[in-house]
Amino acid sequence: MFKIELSDKPTIYNFQVEDFHTYHVGKSGVLVHNAGDAYKQLRKVSPSKEMKDAVNPEGKKVDPVYGYEVDRLEADHIMPLKEITEQPGFSDLSFAEQKAVANTPENFMGLGRSTNASKGAKPIGEWSGHSKLGPISEDIQQQLLQKDQNARKAISKAISERLGGK
């Protein structure tokens, strides 16, 4: 490793290209890739307001895992958002398409705040339950695993559909 200090500070331009992830820059036409941090950007827009509202129907709201009542359920990504950003083909989508995939309705369920905090960014199969509320019952675990399977299929389909013309 070595360090180089420049007498004049070069001008640095930070920008994000929405539609294309690779492009040519400079007189020499160097091919560069617009990697960005998809997860960080998508975290700001997913879950969307629509998904937050969708998991909160009118009437009484009850956490589906532990059965406690809440004023408002939190929209939880069944397939974690980080995992979505790592799916094959996802990085080839425009940001608008990535946002749409990240907000796929089948990938959301409403959870109580405490339950959602316990699950965190873990896939359902790796989450054994809440440290204070206890393990997840076998029946609920099976229901959650089915939701996980359905969500993964929906995410895969959403990516494939958007890649169809590319």
Describe the protein.
By secondary structure, the protein is of the alpha+beta class. The protein has one domain. 35% of the residues lie in helices and 14% in strands. It is built from six helices and eight strands; from the N terminus they run ββααβββααβαββα. It starts with 21 loop residues before the first strand and ends with a helix. The model has no long low-confidence stretch (mean pLDDT 88).
Features:
166 residues; two-stranded antiparallel sheet; 8 strands; 14% strand
Helix percentage:
25-40%
How widely separated are the two ends? 40 Å
Count of alpha/pi helices: 6
The amount of beta strand, in percent, is: 5-15%
Rounded mean pLDDT is 88
Q: What integer value in Å does the Rg equal?
A: 20 Å
What ranges have pLDDT less than 50 throughout 5 or more consecutive residues? none
How would you write the strand order of the largest sheet? 1-2
Q: What general outline do the C-alpha atoms trace?
A: elongated
Note the topology.
Layout: E1 22-25, E2 30-33, H1 38-43, H2 49-54, E3 61-62, E4 69-70, E5 74-77, H3 81-85, H4 95-102, E6 108-111, H5 113-119, E7 129-130, E8 134-135, H6 138-163
Antiparallel strand pairs: 1-2, 3-4, 5-6, 7-8
Helix pairs in contact: 4-6
In short:
Strand 7 (129-130) and strand 8 form a beta hairpin. This protein is of the alpha+beta class and 166 residues long.
